[in-house]
Design a protein that fits this description.
Length: about 375
């Protein structure tokens, strides 16, 4: 259990440090940064130069400091890379002196906040992500559909928010016309947006790659169907072009030449197929049919979306033939707004944490011994 008296005291309207470690963190934190500014909190944003973090941060007009880059595949290289990035972050953080560190599973930030005695709030939505037993955040926040029993964390330090991570920013989405012509697509085309599996993630399962390839082969044979591929990095883009040169040559498959707004592309697609993660859940939040080829451990969020009919989990190549509906989607005038309170709830928790050193809703309160115990958290 983390001792409350080991943390630095908070100052009134102290700076809040947000670290953008991966591409999905940018649209998630953009509205949070904006709302914190409305509450009068100065926010320090750092970003890792990997995947599309920098491009997305520019797209969302965030004021950020680029620190570190992707270290490559392999446990040793990843460990060395995140430790080196932590060292790169320290000078900025010592200068800025934030009162609270907030991220969506940024391990480098967690190292720095622990070394500098900065209280930390880490958000996460996949309970099978690898954690560190010897370095723990002060608080952990996750969607309410993830049970405490699935988290290897002190229940008194766990906070929950309604809905899913993508509800934080999807509620602000406004569809924009013109993206199909921009990508060389016709309105009558059956458009499928596809994202390959996260091949460099620690939870990657090669079966996901094989199922993704089978999906491309299956869909590419359907007349009038166009595939828009969104690789996670340039290496994946090269692999896609090398693996299916004929599909790129005849216009069946394409990769956007410049970064596009992911939500808008999903909205103007007829359905989505992805190797798991944010894009699947963004489609589910938008009400767009989505099929997952992720073959790792299925987390509680995806289980919840599957049970409610908002996500279809594909398990074999046979499922491609029996579960995918090859029909044009009728797009409504606006996106659904299932959990509009997700953003305000998370922001209010961050603000309450920064102001009083323990979150809202009486979940955490100091005990006489100086530790922190829960009033209403359940195991």
């Amino acid at each position: 259990m983390v001792k409350a008296d080991r943390q630095r005291p908070f100052t009134d309207k102290g700076k809040i440090w947000i670290d953008l470690d991966n591409s999905p963190h940018v649209p998630f934190f953009a509205p949070i940064v904006e709302e914190l500014g409305k509450h009068g909190y100065p926010v320090v944003v750092t970003a890792r130069d990997c995947f599309q973090v920098r491009e997305l941060a520019d797209l969302f007009h965030l004021n950020y400091r680029l620190v570190g880059h992707h270290s490559g595949k392999g446990k040793i290289r990843k460990m060395a890379g995140l430790c080196f990035r932590a060292l790169q972050l320290i000078p900025t953080i010592l200068k800025e002196k934030p009162s609270l560190a907030v991220s969506h599973c940024s391990r480098s930030q967690l190292i720095v906040s622990t070394l500098c005695g900065i209280p930390s709030l880490v958000l996460g939505d996949y309970e099978f992500a690898t954690g560190w037993a010897f370095i723990r955040p002060t608080w952990h926040m996750c969607p309410e559909v993830i049970p405490n029993s699935a988290l290897q964390f002190d229940p008194s330090r766990i906070l929950k928010y309604p809905g899913i991570k993508e509800d934080v920013y999807v509620t602000r989405f406004v569809p924009k016309p013109g993206i199909r012509p921009q990508l060389g697509l016709q309105e009558q085309d059956l458009v499928v947006t596809m994202r390959p599996p996260a091949s460099e993630a620690h939870y990657h399962n090669p079966e996901s790659d094989r199922l993704f390839e089978a999906a491309v082969e299956f869909l590419s044979k359907k007349p009038g169907l166009k595939l828009v591929a969104l690789p996670r990095n340039e290496k994946q883009a090269v692999c896609l072009r090398k693996r299916w040169p004929d599909l790129f040559a005849n216009g069946t498959m394409r990769i956007p030449e410049k970064i596009v707004e992911g939500l808008n592309l999903i909205w103007h697609s007829d359905f989505v197929i992805s190797g798991g993660g944010t894009m699947n859940r963004e489609a589910a939040a938008l009400g767009v049919p989505v099929y997952s080829v992720f073959r790792g451990k299925i987390g509680a969020v995806d289980q919840y979306l599957s049970k409610t009919g908002r996500l279809v989990l594909l398990q074999s190549s046979e499922d491609l033939h029996t579960k995918i509906s090859l029909v044009e989607r009728e797009r409504p005038a606006s996106a659904p707004n299932r959990h509009p309170a997700a953003l305000s709830f998370i922001v209010n928790q961050i603000v309450a944490t920064a102001e009083s050193q323990h979150p809202l809703s009486k979940r955490i309160e100091p005990s006489p011994s100086g530790t922190v115990r829960s009033q209403d958290a359940t195991a």
